[in-house]
Structures are given as C-alpha cells and as structure tokens.
Amino acid sequence: MASSGAAKNPKKANLVDHYSIKHLLDESVTEVVKSQGYAEDVRLSNVRLLIGSIIIAIALLAQFYPKKFPENRDFLVTCIGLYPFTLLFNGLLQFISYTKEKNAFLFTYPPPGSFNSTGLIVSSKLPRFSDMYTLTIASADPKSISANKPVVLTKSVTKWFTKDGLLVEGLFWKDVERLMDDYNGDRKNK
C-alpha cells in the first residue's frame, strides 16, 4: 500500500523551515489515512468558513455601502450595532480552534462498512528548534464504546528526509501505516 502515494512526484521541504517540514508531513499523513478508507470530515472547517464569511460580509457592507455619510446614517448605526456580533463570532472561531482543533489537521468519518461508529482525529506537533515530529491518532469521539486508545509516534524528521529535503515517502508511509495498524489493532483486541 505504501507505493500508492510514493514515487509519483518527489516531495521536497525546506529543511530550515520547520513549518514547511510539518506541512509536508501532515499532507502525507492525510494521504495515508485516506488510502486506508477514511473519508475526511470537513464539517468543522465549513462552520469556521461560514462564520468567517459572515464577519467579512458585515465588514464589506459597512465599507462599500453605496450611499455617503449623511444618507447612510441608519445603515452605519446598524453596522456599529453588529460590531459586537463580529467580536462574538471571532471569539467563537478562537473557541473552536482552542477546544476542538488543538493540533489536529485531519478529522475523518469511520470507514464505510466498518463496525466502528467513530472517525479519527489526527494531530501532530513539530516544536520550533526541534527535529522530533509527534503524530497522534485518536478517536473523534473518545467516549464512544468503539473508541480506541490514542496512539502516538514520535520520531526525528531526519529519518524521513534526505539531506536535500526530499521526503522518503516509502519510509514515512510505513511508519504511519504501522501507527494506523496499532490504532486499529486495539480495536481487534477489545
């Protein structure tokens, strides 16, 4: 299965930019998880986009309303009245980010045809000035009866990249697939 995402186009990261490294690894993890039958759950992203769009729409209306000041007084008062709601919406975005997303970059549905009723939350960390990448796979609903214990992989990114910054996808995919097997193995042992 490792060959399905590897060797098409070599993936390269800037080795002095840890954001570039983390982004490339996270995208590769997403490919591995999807290749194992998990579909991405984008509902939370869609809610965040909707809230952001409402905030932007209010700002655009206030900025580009076609009438000039004395004539648009009532509209401006309405926009000023809506301003606290934009602050509330921004606070809601921060709350979602802090409580639900944390370090997660992928939310999934359960694989079709599985007996599992919960998807996955996949998160990662790559601290600044560190080469240790931590990948965590956990249940999207930890209180569910079909939820497994989270599994964690921590490894130096130097194991997966050449000195030129090319990702050795075969090695990385094997490590991620092994972690997926560990997560799914707990389910079989229950």
UniProtKB/TrEMBL annotation:
GO BP annotation list: signal peptide processing
Residues annotated as transmembrane: 47-66, 75-96
InterPro entries xref list: Spc2/SPCS2 (IPR009582)
Keywords: Endoplasmic reticulum, Membrane, Transmembrane, Transmembrane helix
UniProt name for this protein: Signal peptidase complex subunit 2
Matching Pfam families: SPC25 (PF06703)
Tree of life domain: Eukaryota
Topology within the bilayer: Multi-pass membrane protein
GO cellular component, one term: signal peptidase complex
PANTHER family per the UniProt record, alphabetical: MICROSOMAL SIGNAL PEPTIDASE 25 KDA SUBUNIT, SIGNAL PEPTIDASE COMPLEX SUBUNIT 2
Function: Component of the signal peptidase complex (SPC) which catalyzes the cleavage of N-terminal signal sequences from nascent proteins as they are translocated into the lumen of the endoplasmic reticulum. Enhances the enzymatic activity of SPC and facilitates the interactions between different components of the translocation site.
GO molecular function, one term: peptidase activity
Organism whose genome encodes this protein: Musa acuminata subsp. malaccensis (Wild banana)
Family affiliation: Belongs to the SPCS2 family.
